[in-house]
Amino acid sequence: MTDHRPTPYVYGLDLVRFLCTLMVCAFHLTWHNPQMVSTMPFGWIGVQIFFVISGVVIANSAARATPLQFLRSRFLRLYPAAWLAAIVNFGLLLAVPVATFGAVGVWVDPSLKGLAFSLALLGNTFLTSAYWTLPIELAFYALILLSIVGGGARRFVAVARLLVVASLPYVVFLFAATRSAGALGWFDFGYGPKNMLLLRHGIYFATGMYFWLLNSRHRLAGIDWLLLALALAGAGLEIHTRAAQIVSSYAVGAHGPLSIGFLVAGALAIFAACTCAIFVALRHAQAWVPPARLATLVRTLGLVTYPFYLLHEILGGFMLHAGLSRGLPHAAALALAMAAVGVVAWLIARHGEPVLRRAIGNAFGGNKASARAGVKF
């Protein structure tokens, strides 16, 4: 029987994750501004890469965990940061006119319903659009939890196979329908709760799981190599579909509207580079251990990633608007916004989350869950 051992800490994943967060932030803060639309038009691909990384780290954190240990580690990694970020986000929405965010192209929902769903990480409306990925993550966690209950890491191959077999036909259908401009009806999941079926994004989680399996003393069967190849091919179709669905939402820049071909080529290149980096980082996890100070810095960047992602639209949008309204050049205003998000995200990761985690642990009998049990992105 294959011994599925957890992989040593993979510092390279933190770097890829942080880079993707910066890309997503730059994209959301620039794609509706004609003067900034070309800054990072492919940044949305960071979300798909997040899902690949989740496939890796969640499989790794669950490899030797009991169901209760897995639930506790996931809850303490996901919710404390989300609650703290929601407080910051909602506070800004109460203090700043909604038009401020609309001026920089950031969608917000300052309602109590949006706050409630942003605290629960479930629902069909949130304080801002970035939260749409979190119900998808929760659905993947639930699938992994079922596999732990049903047999542990031995079941991970079956989970990866299921994700590809279920997801690929939907992605092919979606790609074909988008190319033909056909009406999708119920099959158009958009950014809503139907994505929790994992039909659109399952190929990304499966890719990450296969990467982890390949680096945890597991030899893939021929069918799994085929399914991995199909998952990567399906990722290409999904990326093309996403570009086709959002291209008309971009601002028209100085050189006219962006083309689908341009967006697809850039997004595919970034996705290929990052997935290769993920696999190589896994393969060399034991050898590529940085010196202590650098390791601490890299680990901090990884921990900052999640609150940064949750804060970047509202806090970043507010700071971007403030910079632009005071006459800062676009690049300087964007840098100011991202720096401000980084500082607040660091405060949450370094000071807020540990305190809240300890309080929750004490409330439930003093059980401790390490932040190193697995990371969200």
Describe the structure.
With 377 residues, the protein is an all-alpha fold. The protein has one domain. α1 packs antiparallel against α10. It is globular, with a radius of gyration of 20 Å.
Topology:
Layout: H1 11-28, H2 45-62, H3 67-95, H4 98-103, H5 112-120, H6 133-150, H7 156-179, H8 202-214, H9 222-246, H10 260-283, H11 292-311, H12 314-325, H13 330-363
The N- and C-terminal alpha carbons lie at a distance of: 30 Å
The ordered H/E elements are HHHHHHHHHHHHH
Low-confidence stretches: 367-377
Instruction: Tell me, rounded to a whole number, the average pLDDT.
Output: 92
Structural class: mainly alpha
Q: Any idea how many domains?
A: 1
Alpha plus pi helix count:
13
Biggest sheet details: none
Share of helix, binned: 55-70%
Shape: globular
